[in-house]
Design goal:
4 helices, two-stranded antiparallel ribbon, two-stranded parallel ribbon, 4 strands, alpha+beta
Length: about 100
């Protein structure tokens, strides 16, 4: 577990109601973020992501992107962020 993930887990236990992510549609508390990160991390493991595996992540900056990034880190994955502005052929070349 990375220091970032360990810190997130600790802070979620200590301050579960603290708001940490906000966008135009909603906000997330530390407790909610940790629950989502944990659940998504389990789903990624069940899908076959193992420590050290690379996971491409494409999308606009959003709470969902942050959750996916943290979930991959939580299970030892390595995130390869892809710019959604790139053409599909360029994204495929990066993958």
């Amino acid at each position: 577990m990375t220091d970032l993930i360990a810190t997130l887990a600790r802070e979620a236990r200590q301050h579960p109601q603290r708001v940490v992510l906000v966008d135009a549609r909603a906000s997330l508390t530390l407790g909610e973020l940790w629950q989502r990160v944990s659940a998504l991390g389990e789903a990624l493991q069940q899908a076959g992501l193992k420590p050290g595996d690379r996971m491409a992540l494409i999308g606009a900056n959003s709470p969902a992107w942050v959750q996916a990034w943290l979930a991959a880190l939580a299970v030892g994955g390595v995130v390869v962020p892809l710019n959604p502005e790139l053409r599909a052929a360029d994204q495929a070349a990066l993958v």
